[in-house]
Amino acid sequence: MEHEHREEINSENEKKTLFVIIFTIITMFAEIIYGYITNSMSLLADGFHMGTHALALGLTFIAYVLIRKFKDSPKFPCGTDKIGTLAAYTSSLFLGLTGFWIIYEAVQRVLSPVSIEFNEAIIVAVIGLLVNTVCILIMENKSHKHDCINEKEDYNFKAAYYHILADALTSVLAILALLTGKYFNIIHFDPIVGMIGGILIIRWSIGLIKHTVKDLINMQ
Question: pTM of the prediction?
Answer without folding.
Answer: 0.70
